[in-house]
Input
Amino acid sequence: YMLDSFRGTSEERQLIEFIKNHENKLKEKYDSFQLLRNEEVYKIFDFDTGRGFQPDFLLLLHGKQDEQNAYYQVFIEPKGKHLSGDDNDGWKENFLQEITNRYGFEKIVMEKSSGYVLIGLPFFNSEDHEMKAKFDNSFEKISNIQG
Output
């Protein structure tokens, strides 16, 4: 959905600001990118148990024409620290990591002649230093993907 304003959680609003602050870096590497808010439309399912959840955001990246791997779908879930542990939504972060392990940077999903890469980032949290560093490190890999 195209929005000109957003009244989501503070973490969701901070994620949007984070992407805006990295817009130039993304434009250097990709022909285009879109950050989509998933309003209970797109659901993914855990490989081990089949539990489903709807990541809050999808970052779609289209690589430069001379890049071998042109299409990236990045799952992003802003999350408060109090919800990130194993007793709460920790399984979702583990699942996002498993997506990257199975289909991410090193393992490309091929459809016809185009390459698709699926990436699940760690939870986004701008307040907790450990969570922020983990997210920033993973996001930096996206900014430096070599085709």
About this structure: The mean pLDDT is 83. The two ends are 30 Å apart (CA to CA).
